[in-house]
């Protein structure tokens, strides 16, 4: 069994990006600049954005955190987005979700200039991805592809089962694994809340990507020998014995499933750390205008 | 076994659209206007565009056929597209494919204003579809959804297997059948040229949508009892005994598979006629500005 070590790989990627930034500086070029907009005071959101800002510092990017109050109107947020779209110094930006309920998330995400959409959530970028064109890939799916690629996990002709059809993980992952190229060329089954015979389906899978958010959902008897396991579930389970008052766990019964798996991601330290690394990668691609028309 | 009669249903849809157009006229409103651009003299393309123009006449739409020579440059075609984008009298338009090889198809399709993209091929529309937003759905997948809906074929929790990952049928169909709502909520497996154990997969399917283009590919021993069969394959097989010199056949061994199926589309007369009906439907939606921001 090989552990897909997202902590190590994400550090490798950050080191590579740091080198790129050094070269840019040495050439007198502007370094990549990421902005993050956060509306309100949600604790988890502040933590996530804080991590993103620190990751920018780590690789030498400029970063800007835009904080807006919980009572921000949709128009005010749209104005801010137009300002960031028009600001040539900002290469890419993200709108931290969730947004307060007075704001239509879909309308807000549609307002982001696709050339600066480093989260890959804009329909134009999502459509390009689904139509095999080059574009920003949402950070978590991008991180999973990167893990599979760097560990040389064979995906061609394999049966990949994706659990969960969210817009940010399951849906894009199901599309990406079925595209031509590597990683890809899998036969892909997308399962979700309406799926009936989930055990029967997972037990036929060569690769399982679980993004359900139910701790310990995937058990050893649901998988075959030598399965590849990508666990995207991140759930905080309350635990008074921990300093933080909780521990983090995935969708997979790691102890037992890992005995059958050929490759498996741990939680924490698997897919999680990859997400921020790929956001940085997307920001670098934005700086280089990789996908601009 | 119930025949999914695309010829009948497409006529019903055309009748419904005709009624809508009559109402528009009675209200003194402009009727929908579809333009079709054809570059070169490909016989099949001319036939298809001819059918689309005749279908417009049938329902009372205005139509314009724009013919350009085989030696048209990409710039000339892009100019024509910008002209159609800017022409308020044109509600929707299509670029008949394939295009001559001096023209980059992707760049051309990207130039179409998404609000007039009644083929649903623009990445922005494709992305909206994949993100569960309202938009133009490509005509063939839209026609398949319509058939399933009008015959009340249960799709929720069913295992749908799609054969072929083309941008115009397989890929969008795999996305649509897994979306929430009806028809949808299926567990979807997308298979393609790299799929290894296709027989094993099709034999587990409740619904099979085949868009492969290989006559007689899907045989009775590959499907289970009561399967629902949607045959999107349309292949011309040379046959001197026919007046046209060929006959049309699908991917499915109809004679034997139909004995096991609960529902099945014939070829011809199944999915084929639905495609033009749904192009008309999209043009009506464009006229009504259904998806305009």
Oligomer: homodimer
- Give the count of helical stretches of chain A: 10
Q: Determine the CATH superfamily of the largest domain in chain A.
A: NAD(P)-binding Rossmann-like Domain
Number of separate strands of chain A: 11
The averaged pLDDT of chain A comes out at 96
Any idea of the CATH class of the largest domain in chain A? Alpha Beta
Largest sheet of chain A: 6 strands, parallel
The run of helices and strands of chain A is: EHEHEHEHHHEHEHEEEEHEH
Q: What is the CA-based Rg of chain A, rounded?
A: 19 Å
CATH names the topology of the largest domain in chain A as Rossmann fold
Summarize the structure.
2 copies of one chain form a homodimer. The first copy, chain A, is α/β, with parallel strands linked by helices and 293 residues long. Chain A is built from 10 helices and 11 strands.
Strands, helices and their partners?
Two copies of one chain form a homodimer.
Chain A: E1 2-3, H1 6-26, E2 33-39, H2 43-59, E3 62-68, H3 74-86, E4 92-95, H4 105-111, H5 123-130, H6 139-150, E5 159-163, H7 170-178, E6 187-191, H8 198-202, E7 207-210, E8 228-231, E9 235-238, E10 246-249, H9 254-257, E11 263-264, H10 271-287
Provide keyphrases for this structure:
homodimer; 293 residues; alpha/beta; Rossmann fold; 2 domains; six-stranded parallel sheet
């Amino acid at each position: 069994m090989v552990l897909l070590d997202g902590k190590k790989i994400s550090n490798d990627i950050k080191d590579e990006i740091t080198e790129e930034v050094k070269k840019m500086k040495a050439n007198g070029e502007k370094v990549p600049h990421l902005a993050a907009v956060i509306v309100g005071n949600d604790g988890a959101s502040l933590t996530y954005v804080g991590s993103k800002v620190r990751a920018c510092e780590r690789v030498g990017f400029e970063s800007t955190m835009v904080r807006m109050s919980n009572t921000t109107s949709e128009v005010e947020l749209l104005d801010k987005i137009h300002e960031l779209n028009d600001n040539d110094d900002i290469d890419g930006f993200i709108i931290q979700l969730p947004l307060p309920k007075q704001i239509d998330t879909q309308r807000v995400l549609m307002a982001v200039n696709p050339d600066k959409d480093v989260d890959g959530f804009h329909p134009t970028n999502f459509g390009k991805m689904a139509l095999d064109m080059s574009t920003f890939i949402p950070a978590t799916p991008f991180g999973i592809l990167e893990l599979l690629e760097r560990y040389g996990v064979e995906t061609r002709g394999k049966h990949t089962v994706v659990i969960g059809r969210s817009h940010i993980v399951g849906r894009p992952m199901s599309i990406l694994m079925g595209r031509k190229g590597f990683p890809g060329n899998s036969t892909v089954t997308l399962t979700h809340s309406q799926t009936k015979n989930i055990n029967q389906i997972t037990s036929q899978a060569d690769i399982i990507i679980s993004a359900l958010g139910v701790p310990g959902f995937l058990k050893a008897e649901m998988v075959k020998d030598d399965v590849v396991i990508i666990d995207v579930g991140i759930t905080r389970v309350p635990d008074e014995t921990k300093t933080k008052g909780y521990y983090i766990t995935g969708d997979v019964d790691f102890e037992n499933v890992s005995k059958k798996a050929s490759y498996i991601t741990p939680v924490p330290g698997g897919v999680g750390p990859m997400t921020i690394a790929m956001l940085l990668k997307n920001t670098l691609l934005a700086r280089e205008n990789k996908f601009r028309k």
